[in-house]
Design a protein that fits this description.
Length: 82
């Protein structure tokens, strides 16, 4: 295991201290490890999702011509609905 040093905003440190004082976590280190583990789990999940989408795209065969502007507009509309 390695030791690193990070700088956090005051509000995050206060939240961490409150969680330790409430007994939710034993130490600030435990909170940081949990947060980084969750970040890494999410990152790995997203990478797996992207790999699956790439495989699906490759398996679907050759691409047909399309209008990039229309595709980008569809994506923008879809993202606005979220």
């Amino acid at each position: 295991m390695q030791t690193i040093q990070i700088t956090l905003p005051d509000n995050l440190v206060a939240n961490m201290n409150a969680a330790v004082e409430a007994g939710i976590y034993n130490t600030q280190d435990e909170i940081a490890c949990f947060a980084i583990s969750e970040w890494n789990r999410h990152r790995e999940y997203r990478l797996a999702e992207l790999r699956a989408l790439c495989a699906e795209g490759e398996a679907s065969g050759n691409a047909e011509p399309f209008a990039l502007d229309e595709l980008l507009e569809k994506v923008r509309k879809k993202n606005r609905r979220k």
